[in-house]
Amino acid sequence: MTMTPQELKDQKETLELINSELAARLARQSESGAKVDTKAVFLVGFAATGAQFLASRSFEPFTGTAAFAAYAVAVGFGISVFNLAEYEDIKPRDVLDTYARSEKGATLGALAGTRVGMFEKNAVLHQRKTKRWTIALAAVAVGIVLSTVSLVLHTGGHDRHTEPGEPTPTPTPTSSATSAKPH
To answer: Could you give the C-alpha distances from 70 to 17, 52, 63, 151, in angstroms and in order?
Structure first.
């Protein structure tokens, strides 16, 4: 967007409005990204806890291994969410050095154009973060299901706990074991 000096002067109030709205929008975009980061931290923690829980139990090998793989995917994608590059923002030194001697209208126009470019770059970054968070969430859900299936399959009909006050089930002797005993 190129404007003549007179157009910049005439549009000064409009440029101030646009510039302040763009600054506010960049702040909201950054806040939204921080919320995704926070949610990713919780997913990583949950996946790590799920994997530790499963590792501390006897589990069915196939579904247990698949659960560990799902938890690993969740941790990997979750960490990648908050390891992405920082959001772009105005660099104060550059603004001062570049626009300190410019007229207000020219400065506002340039700042607005810079913020639009930053917003567009940040939007791509935000979409990547959101997609990676969604993958991490799905992987945690799959890990939970697979962990549960693995534990249930391994436990099957044995290794069941009794309620307090109930007698502990004793194995029934086989007929060959009883016939081998002297009477």
So the answer is: 48, 13, 10, 15
Tokens of 117: 């470019």
3 state SS of 183: coil
CA–CA gap between residue 121 and residue 98 (Å, rounded): 22
Vertex 67 angle, CA 61 and 69, to 5°: 100
CA dihedral 38, 41, 43, 47 (to 10 degrees): -170
pLDDT at 132: 94
Q: What is the distance between the alpha carbons of residues 72 and 47, in angstroms, rounded to a whole number?
A: 8
> What are the angstrom distances between the C-alpha of 181 and each of 54, 173, 174?
42, 11, 12
| Cα 86 to Cα 124: distance, rounded to the nearest angstrom | 12
SS3 1: coil
**Ramachandran class of 51: left when φ > 0, alpha when ψ lies in -120 to 50, beta otherwise:** alpha
Please list the rounded mean pLDDT of every run of 10 residues in the chain (183 residues). 72 82 88 90 94 92 94 95 75 81 84 89 91 96 95 71 58 52 51
| 8 Å CB contact between 44 and 109 | no
pLDDT at 50: 95
